[in-house]
Specification:
It contains three helices and five strands, in the order αβββββαα. By secondary structure, it is α+β, with helices and mostly antiparallel strands. It folds into two domains: 29 residues, no CATH class; 56 residues, no CATH class. The strands form two sheets. The protein has a three-stranded antiparallel β-sheet. A two-stranded antiparallel ribbon has the order 1-2. A hairpin with a 5-residue loop joins strand 3 and strand 4. The chain is elongated. The mean pLDDT is 78.
């Protein structure tokens, strides 16, 4: 139905994230990065999108951003920085990347 409302758009984004709400004021032109316009996953253990704890021999807090072709990833060792400091550093880098890449511009 939304393709009738927005025939020129190759992709459509639902502003309120409800894919069944196809009212015209809830639709906007989508871009390839907009599928990231979604809530946090249930298994998110940091409270911040794109920041996660990786357990194992080399335990670390990791941050990543971007898609298939332009992904950035950075790891902060718990052994080197400590648990809390590594988490703070990962969140800080993620926030810097979001500003640099204008992620807020698309609503996520």
């Amino acid at each position: 139905f939304h393709m009738l409302s927005c025939p020129d758009y190759t992709q459509v984004d639902h502003i309120n994230r409800d894919g069944l709400d196809n009212r015209s004021f809830n639709l906007r032109e989508g871009v390839k990065v907009n599928p990231k316009n979604k809530g946090q996953q249930k298994n998110n253990n940091s409270g911040v999108t794109g920041v996660y704890y990786q357990d194992g021999k080399y335990a670390c807090w990791c941050t990543q951003i971007g898609g298939t072709c332009n992904r950035r990833t950075r790891r902060f060792s718990i052994q080197l920085y400590g648990y809390d400091e590594a988490r703070k550093m990962a969140i800080k880098v993620r926030n810097e990347w979001e500003k640099e890449l204008e992620y807020g511009k698309y609503g996520y």
